[in-house]
Protein: PPM-type phosphatase domain-containing protein
Organism: Pristionchus fissidentatus
Amino acid sequence: MLLTCASMTNTLNNNNNNNAASKPRELRVSASTPRLADSATACFLPRPHSSSSIQNDMLFCDVLNASSTPSHADHIPSDLPVRLSDEESPSASPPPSPTPVPTFSRSLGLCLGSSSDDDQPLPIATVSVPKPELRTWRITSAGLVSTMGAFLDKPKTNKDNDSGVGQGLKYAMATMQGWRVDMEDAHVAELSMGDASPFSSWSFFAVFDGHAGSVAAEFAATHVLQTLVEGEHLQQVAQLLAGREDGRLCEESCQLLEKGLKQGFLALDDKIREKLDSIMGKDRSGTTAVCAIVTPSHIVVANLGDSRAVFSRRDEATFGTEDHKPCNEKERQRIISAGGSVMIQRINGSLAVSRALGDFEYKSNTGVSPARQQVSPEPDVYFFERQSSTDEYLILACDGIYDVMSNDELCAFVHARMEVAKEGGMSKVCNEVLDACLQKGSRDNMTFLLVAFEAAPVVQEERAKEEEKQLAVIKSALQDIIEESLQNGDSKEELCVEYVLRTLNSTRPEVVPVEGHIRLLVRSIAEGVVAEHTRSSAPPSENGEKTASPGIPAQ
């Protein structure tokens, strides 16, 4: 596989005047290197140099599986070059090559394999791409790293749930690993921020979406509340509100609270730096964040990165926080001023969020403040005065949700599911959001936190009964498919969710509504039916409990 890049040819030739210009350089990969996909692409970016003197030509190299879509977690470290080998003598005769077959590369805008050298830029690297594993690999100075952006062969759909009631509100949370190899999300849900006034009547919720590892997200979730409450500005808020019986935030206390949130996140970022510096191997993880403080009079939201808060009020337009992306003009200007660049909508062609905790390789410019680094840890802060007659719910979620649902689409789904969630309530709604996003193609970790206020949607009995009938028809069809399959002599190994869904789609498509939210939940319904059948048909174990049969995955 021959890769050429017209934009880099002159740079390399100018620094290698004594070398034969027609000889391609070869990228050495050891025999122990994990095997990559035939369809993988090696992406080369020029390394920035401080002078025109270059001893070794260096390239950044990120080998990506062509079938995978990288997210902000799949970023190339800016300080880990790959050196091209100079082992072969320039005078050595090149091996005979087969008859070239011209092919046109759209990305490079040139013809590869032409027999004429006059109208072609010279090749700068020859890369051999062996047989694949379905992983995304990153070449670093320590070797190939496969843990960032890698995907499983099937999603992990088990969910962790949390819920609670208090302070005049209800909350529920669901999180799912999905297609990712590791779970890097974290969350916080506290109905009371502390024992002292006014924090005892304040609630706190947060979602952290980690990348390049889970350390930053987990540390942030553990220490964010204490860091905020102990901060100078929130202590001033407490003193200011000490003489107010109603506990309402005034203009001065709102200003102090905004400063406290911004300074608190900067302090939390410093603590994360100390934590990561103490870890052997220099962990490179980072995390986005979105949090909410709910007081008796206000809802205060802070976010950085592309995790998002969405607030719904009855008969009003949905509010959503702004994602911090390098392509946003104000973010782009800060990145450039701090010495970075924006390429392919990423910082230095690598990180796809412009504000985050951690990611300290982008925070090394000593000439600017922490908030003005390429990646800023300073959040945007929003205030909403509570209105008991119209406030419905607040959503905090990571980008695994918003990758496949817009704000309005998500709110419509949540509203409709809350009106039919008789059993399981809000936790069921949260689980259904994750299932729907998985069905719509989300391949990221997913965390969804729902806070319901006084005017939240309530169960509509007629709609709930109508949906129960639809679900009964679908479940009956799924049961029939399983029974027919076993009667026809099919093995139990075939009774996986995918097999049941394919059969349902080909033999009983009429039982699934063409439109509506139930269509997005068919997979989770099938998982439940298969799991129920697995439990009922499994042979008893030695202690008398039934065990899952081999080949039938427990859902």
